[in-house]
Structure formats: structure tokens, C-alpha cells
Amino acid sequence: MSLIPKKGTVYVVDDDEAVRDSLQWMLEGKDYRVRCFDSAESFLNRYDPREVACLIIDIRMSGMTGLELQSRLIETHSPLPLAFITGHGDVPMAVDTMKKGAMDFIQKPFHEEQLVPLVERMLEQAKGSFAEHQNSVARDALMARLTLRESQVLERIVAGRLNKQIADDLGISIKTVEAHRANIMEKLNANTVADLLKVALGPNAVKA
User: Fold this and answer.
1) How far is the C-alpha of 34 from the C-alpha of 57, rounded, in Å?
2) Are 73 and 133 in contact (CB under 8 A)?
């Protein structure tokens, strides 16, 4: 058994057992962790969105197709980079999948010199996109702690409104605004207004 740490996880979804075996043998030989599925449905049942990984899917499968699986992942805002396995007649279809975010497509028969660099690119992208995704999930969890009124106050703080202006906007006293501000700072784990803006604005926060 190799003592070298695994480079990352590659999900393979294809209803052809020979293709799955070939990809698994090729990629495990390069020290990737490979998890194979015979259908899109079985993949979705077992997929762990917390794992840094990439996905290789066959375009044409019985049941849910690769295209339908891509659409499902897009709907859930999955950060999972993916590429398609295609036959010659599927190339125009594969090009369309790239317009929807697929990183590439591999034509059958595929070769190691084509496949391995693609997997490396996808996993490199995954590291960044998964970190962003985790930050977004953590931010959403913090924001969910706010009450409706606190959210209204925060919205106005972000807009640059002063306490007196916020009080006038919401028909409450300045002291009540100050109390809400203190609660917001505590709930969002913010020590300064700059910290508060970073959480409230997320990726849209202006970087110094």
C-alpha cells in the first residue's frame, strides 16, 4: 500500500462497468482516491458535498443522464468540478455542457495523458471553490441567527446609515438601535465594523 497521501477524490459515474474499472485502475495508479457509481441516482445518494473532489460522468446513461445530473448539481449550487465522458457523436452535446460549467470532456477511448492533467486541474479548482463554499455555508449559518429586526438594522448599517437614521427608518429609539447593534456584533462574532461588513457582504466585501 502506498504511504503517499491521496491526492484527492475522483467520483466516476458510468453505467458501463468496464469503463468504471478502467478509470479506477488508471487513476488509483496515480494515487487518487476513486469512488465509482453505476448511476447518477446512486451517486447522489452517496455524494458528500463536504469532500474536496471532482466528478467524471458519462453523458449517456440509463435512468438519469449525465446532463440531468449536471443540472441537478447546478440547482443545488454544488462547487463540484466535473467533466464528461463522451462518444464521438456526443461532442456537440459535450460542448454545450461546458457552457453550463463543465471543465472539459473526454472522448472514448480516453488516454492517461489526457485524463490525468484534467483531473489535476479539476481538483486544483475544487480546493478553491470548496473553501469558498464552506465559507458561504458558515456565513449563512451566522446570518440565520439574526432576528428579523436585527437583519433590518444590519442592512442599514451596511448601507452606511447612522444610528439616528436607522432609528428614524424603523421607528425605534436610538438606544434600541444600539442594543440591536451590540446583539448583531455578538451573534456574527464581529469585534469591529470591518469584521461585521466582511460577514454581511461575504464575497462582495471590499478587500483592503
Assistant:
1) 13
2) no
Q: In the chain, what are the helix, strand and coil shares in percent, each to the nearest 5?
A: 55, 10, 30
CA atoms of 88 and 67, how far apart (whole Å): 16
Residue with cell 481538483: 123
Task: Show the cell assigned to 110.
Answer: 480516453
**DSSP single-letter state for residue 21:** H
pLDDT in tens, 23-82: 999 999 988 999 999 999 999 999 887 788 999 999 888 889 998 999 999 888 788 899
Task: Write the DSSP assignment of 50-87 as a string of letters.
Answer: TS-EEEEEESS-SSS-HHHHHHHHHHTT----EEEEE-
**How many Cβ atoms sit within 10 Å of the Cβ of residue 52?**
17
Cell numbers at residue 19, please? 469503463
Residue 200 three-state SS: helix
Question: Model pTM?
Answer: 0.64
Residue 46 parent element (H or E) = helix 40-46
